[in-house]
Amino acid sequence: MVPNDQSDEIATFLAQRAGNDANARRVAVSVAATCRDIEDALTPIVGTRGVAALLSRSVHVAGQTHVWLNEIKEGLPAAIDLQALTALLARQSPATAAACGGLLLHSFHELLVSLIGASLTERLLRSAWAPFMSSRPQDFLP
Amino acid sequence: MTSPAVIKRLATGVPGLDDVLGGGLPEFSFNLIAGQPGCGKTTLAHQMMFALATAERPAIYFTALGEPPLKMLRYQQQFEFFDSEAIDRSVRFISLSDDAMAGNLDRVLKRIVDEVTQHSPALVFVDSFRSVVLAGETDGHPDNGLRQFVQQLGMLMTSWQATTFLVGEYFSETDANPVFTVCDGLIWLRQSVQRNSMVRKMEVMKMRGQPTLPGLHTFRIGAEGVEVFPPASVANRGPADATAALGAPRLLMGVPGLDAMLGGGLPSGYSLLVAGPSGSGKSILAAAFLSEGARRGETGVIAAFEQHPNRSRSRLVADLIASGQVGLLQNPAADLSIDEVVFMLLRDIRRLGASRVVIDSLSGFELALAPTFREDFRESLSNLVTALAGAGVTVLMTSELEDRYTDLRFSPHGTAFMTDAIIVQRYIEVDSRLRRVMAVVKVRASAHSDELREFSIDADGIRMGAKLADHEGLLGGRPTRKHGVPSSPGGT
């Protein structure tokens, strides 16, 4: 189970995942990779548009703290634009990119928990969340 | 010598449904669960899936353009049958929405084929099938495409040895819909609304190769999911033989003197109607009947249909219920069916090993039925009595009866003939006092008293008195003292 204060936890993981040189681009790639894992896990169940709607909502929520994130087009996307998300994150400082990525993924998790409950969320996202449940973040360095 | 195919029947896990289906669900059958929105189709499908699916017999639940999958998961997990641990282990949810939105049935079929080929499910659900069909119609080839689609799907699923369910909204069973022709089983769910009451009903319109129970069967959706109530006649396993009562043991009523009037107690397995006006002591007699059973180590069940059960229930009955010696069945909502009442009674009877059952009262029972069933109350009551007799219990039913001093009636429902025994209570006026009399009118296949006996009620319950031998015209309500006879001890 992802811890409650997971936004910071995920940010820390993302920063660690980016490596010692604290490269924002590597953080951005890591966030995008997790989003793709989420898509892979959920698309068979809720469809492409279903996942896109959830990710868009999460971007919107994270964008209230990190307003620059609102550059990503909202509305009724058929799929979230991960290239645009990666580019936006890469432009930030490594710490900001990690904090934003952490908040985005945390928001997604919270959103799904509010809809289908913690146990089912954990079950469906098990593969996508695996890196955050690992005690050895260096194992999943990109 | 021929060797017909052996069709294995799957237990659906839905209480009562296997009886209605005629013994379970035929394996590899191609079924349609149809009905209007909100009638319970998806819940029924999920309940069967979670009951049937195992790691060796996995299920795929395809969702199309109906209820969004997230919402479906959100609401279905509120039911107790939903098992999160089964997901991606024995149950797999797959969205067809991207394919269905393209409006091409061939693409939808290909996606289903791909998934079935990959996962080899033994159970396949497509929900909502109707939305798949509508998506196909927008592509400009409505009926022919659909027929082909359904036939191919049916053929494919049977070949893959998958028991299949198409779940869909259909508003009329008279549609010349190719799906109805192709499917092996057709389960139609309905919601019957009358006045302020809604009753859910199920009809198995078709189930190839096995005798289903015809007609509409009520069902209820609760926290545990769907519960179907087969007809009371199914619950009745072997009706009681009236002649067997001749040698049957007798149950004591708990009212000294009354057992002698009944010829030595009430024969076991009999149904007794206690009729009388309001306040005459029917419920007190019923409480004594249950209490006497408890005293002898027997358990009982009381179906209480009063408006205010806590207020009107006697202390004696409340204590018996609290001690677990008597099970209580009550439902203040006027939405019951007779089959549901029988189902609940038999469940409590089996649970407690009960031998005594009280229904207090028939008037309240009639009001507890959904309006749609009240027209058939007499028939329903007959089914109830028969089912309980089949269960071997002894039943006491109370019936509110307006005192009519011009004729002798036992039940406003015209149901007296159904019961094996009748006790009637009445008020009479003697010397400006309202006094009570009781008589045993009938005990089938048994000798009984023909006396009209006075009785009184005190803190200990009913006390039988003597005949009012010095009076005549008791049933007229205003008896007169016979000429030349001295006053009885009870008279003034």
Any overview of this molecule?
The complex is a heterodimer of chains A (142) and B (492). Chain A is mostly helical and 142 residues long. Chain A has one domain. Chain A has helices spanning 6-18, 24-63, 82-90, 94-116, 118-124, 126-133. Chain A is globular. The model of chain A is unreliable at 135-142 (pLDDT under 50). Chain B is α/β, with parallel strands linked by helices. In chain B, 30% of the residues lie in helices and 27% in strands. In chain B, β8 and β9 form a beta hairpin. Classes of the chains: A mainly alpha (142), B alpha/beta (492). Chain A binds chain B through residues 43-50, 54, 115-117, 119-120, 123-124, and chain B through 68-71, 73-74, 77, 84-85, 87-88, 92-98, 101.
Which descriptors would you attach to this protein?
heterodimer; A: 142 residues; mainly alpha; 0% strand; globular; disordered C terminus; B: 492 residues; alpha/beta; nine-stranded mixed beta sheet; 24 strands; 27% strand; elongated
**Total strand segments of chain A:** 0
- The helix/strand series of chain A, from N terminus to C terminus, equals HHHHHH
Oligomeric description of these chains: heterodimer
Number of domains of chain A: 1
The tally of helices of chain B reads 17
Separation of the first and last Cα atoms of chain A = 23 Å
Strand content of chain B: 25-35%
The mean pLDDT of chain A is: 80
Task: List low-pLDDT spans of chain B.
Answer: 237-243
How many whole angstroms does the radius of gyration of chain B measure?
29 Å
Strand order, sheet with most strands of chain B = 5-4-6-7-3-8-9-10-11
Helicity of chain A, as a percent range:
over 70%
Look at the structure and give the mean pLDDT of chain B: 84
Largest binding interface between chains: A-B, 16 and 19 residues
